[in-house]
Amino acid sequence: MLDLENGLPGTNYSLEEMDRNTIFHPLTSISAHMKAGPAIMRSAKGARVVGADGTEYVDCSGGLWCVNIGFGREEIAEAAAKAMTDLNYWHLFGSSSNEATIRLSSRILTLLREEAGFTNAARVFYGTSGSDANDTNYKLVRYYSTLRGKPEKKKIISRTGGYHGLTAAASSLTGIAAYHKAWNLPAADVVYTECPHFYRFARDGEDEAAFCDRMIADLEAIIAREGADTIGGFIAEPIMGTGGVLIPPKGYFARVQEVLDRHDILLIVDEVITGFGRTGNWFGTGLYGLKPDLITLAKGLTSAYFPMSASVVSERMWDVFSEASDEYGPVMHGFTYSGHPVGAAVAMANLDIMENEGLVQNAAESGAYLLAALKAKVGDHPHVGDVRGEGLMIGVEFIADKATRRPFDPAAAAHRLVAAKANAQGVMVRALPFIEVVSFSPALTISKEECDLAVERFAAGLEDASPELARLAGH
Ligand code: PLP
Description:
The protein is an alpha/beta fold. The chain contains 17 helices and 15 strands. The radius of gyration is 23 Å and the shape is globular. Pyridoxal-5'-phosphate binds next to helix 6.
């Protein structure tokens, strides 16, 4: 039996033992953790993280693609301390409000209207994670359809390889089988269309235009099969993150948008990673000229100094909600921490830093620099198939055979090996769960010198992994 008392401070147990005896880790193999975990971090500043053993890393993960303004910013600590002393908590239920959230909402709407072209952004609904925001979106699609007298129009089309979080509804929207296995998911009202990743999923002889045609044809076929009157929404990340930094083929989104408009289907744009400068643009919506009905925000909204997310609703949805208000009564949805005043104050200070330091521009410049450096240093490696990215959202895709684009056996987890070796060389990169991609998503403050150091260490890790990669590839 677990000896809790002896696993607590003041005993002879190490931190590692206490962790293994007390924490149920998310997204972690229990057996691997019991053998080799945990990796404890001690402190962080800018784009550097220091482990409990004193090892310093260049952090090219940005935590989980989220620490956009960099670690250890005193301005945020000061804003949070002031907010906590002024009004540490109030809620938004039953018409209650607080100044920080009011000001933040106005700022988010202005940013989305001006920087993302989301000119009909109407209202902001708050949560605490990307998952709960997408859970809210899942419900709002139903709410909208029901209030319009079309309760059957509730299915959501997602994409294979898409990642939208892990609440029960968000897991269902996530189009990666590993997240469904053994959880009796997805829910029946989510359907998946093809993953638009040309490099990996193009058929022999198919060029990018033909590939894009096939993606659109699949979407059309799904709508025809299910019936447009049963489909309420379509959810997409502008650039798929967890799926492997998958950049859509040329013209893809304009064509998707046309199909959705024709069938009266809402577009949910999940900007949890792409929002707030990550791609070198304020939002992916602006980058691809999307016309959303809902936008999901989290991560960069507070740079992970506070758990906060938002669902931003379009005028056409808002009009339906407000017109039906007297008939339906209060909107029976919300969370204790929706519109948390400390989170809002932190988000405001975070946006001040982003604007004052020109971090969107820096993401564009450092991103281009890092991408070029990676291509130059590892692009010719026999098992590096593709190096791609937009701003500071970059992926390196590994391949067993470059000429034929034959992938590694997924069970071999070749990219995990590379990430582990790179990590041992002092650069944090993440191995993603869908295909063999390692991602780079450092703080948007990262310098060119840090990019150089990261690439040097990554290349050294790749070198260390190379004999094993060759073996796994069957050479
Ligand atoms: N949506 C996208 C695109 C994400 O990348 C993530 C997390 O990585 C989520 C939603 C879920 O966010 P959270 O982990 O805050 O619930």
